[in-house]
Backbone:
C-alpha cells in the first residue's frame, strides 16, 4: 500500500534526519491515518463517529501546521502526475506560483521556495473508487462529477447527501455536502474534499484547486473544485 510505504519511509527518515524529525514524524502519522481510513471503510464493525473525528482532527491540525511553516499560502492544489499514475497535493509558498516539474513526496527540498508536497488523503479513496467502478467515467465533466458524488455518498458513506452543480465552460464544480463524516470539511485535506479534488484532477488530467466553506443554506458545506477549462 502506497500510504503504508509513505508512513514507514518518513518515520525512518525522522530517525536519521534530526533537524526535521518533528515534521517527518507528523507526516508519517498522516500516512498511517490514510491506512486507518481505508481499513475503517472496509471493516464491518462501525467505528464511533466521535473517535474517527478526533483521530482526523489531530492529523489535520498537524498537516495544517506543517503547511504554514513550510509553504504559507492558503492554496490547495491537487496535481496529476500521469507518469507515476498518482495525484499529489501541492501547497505553494504564495498565490503566485509555478508547479514543481519533478515533485517528490513528502516535499521537494532542492529549492526552499518550492512549498509543501504531500500525498493526499483522497488518493487511496480514489484508488478504491476506481476498483468499484462498473462503467467508464467517460469524457464529460458532468458525468465525472456525478460519479464522484455518487461514490462519496453510496460507496464510502462519507456524507448523507451530496448535490453537484457543474460549469464546464468556467472550469468549476461545486458540491453541497450534508452531514459529512470526520468533522468539519474545511479542515486540511479532509477526506471528502480531497477525494473529490483527486477525482477531478485524475479524471480531467489537470491541476484542480480546492476551496471549502460553510454552505449556510440547506447543506452543511460547499466544496468547489476549479481547473483550467481551456482543454476540457
Residues:
Amino acid at each position: 500500500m502506497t500510504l503504508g510505504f509513505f508512513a514507514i519511509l518518513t518515520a525512518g527518515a525522522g530517525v536519521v534526519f534530526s533537524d526535521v524529525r518533528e515534521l517527518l514524524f507528523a507526516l508519517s502519522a498522516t500516512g498511517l491515518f490514510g491506512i486507518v481510513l481505508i481499513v475503517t471503510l472496509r471493516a464491518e464493525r462501525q467505528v464511533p463517529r466521535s473517535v474517527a473525528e478526533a483521530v482526523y482532527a489531530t492529523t489535520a491540525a498537524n498537516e495544517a501546521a506543517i503547511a504554514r511553516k513550510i509553504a504559507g499560502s492558503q492554496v490547495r492544489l491537487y496535481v496529476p502526475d500521469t507518469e507515476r499514475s498518482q495525484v499529489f497535493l501541492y501547497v505553494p509558498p504564495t498565490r503566485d506560483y509555478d508547479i514543481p516539474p519533478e515533485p517528490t513526496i513528502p516535499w521537494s527540498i532542492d529549492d526552499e521556495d518550492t512549498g509543501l508536497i504531500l500525498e493526499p488523503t483522497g488518493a487511496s479513496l480514489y484508488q478504491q473508487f476506481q476498483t468499484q467502478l462498473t462503467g467508464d467515467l467517460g469524457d464529460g465533466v458532468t458525468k465525472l462529477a456525478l460519479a464522484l458524488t455518487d461514490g462519496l455518498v453510496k460507496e464510502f458513506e462519507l456524507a448523507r447527501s451530496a448535490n453537484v452543480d457543474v460549469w464546464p465552460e468556467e472550469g468549476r464544480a461545486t458540491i453541497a455536502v450534508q452531514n459529512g463524516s470526520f468533522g468539519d470539511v474545511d479542515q486540511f485535506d479532509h477526506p471528502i474534499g480531497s477525494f473529490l479534488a483527486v477525482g477531478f484532477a485524475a479524471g480531467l488530467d489537470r491541476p484542480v484547486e480546492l476551496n471549502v466553506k460553510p454552505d449556510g443554506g440547506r447543506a452543511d458545506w460547499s466544496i468547489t473544485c476549479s481547473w483550467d477549462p481551456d482543454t476540457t
User: Anything to note?
Assistant: Strands lie at 77-81, 86-91, 116-118, 159-167, 172-180, 208-214, 221-226.
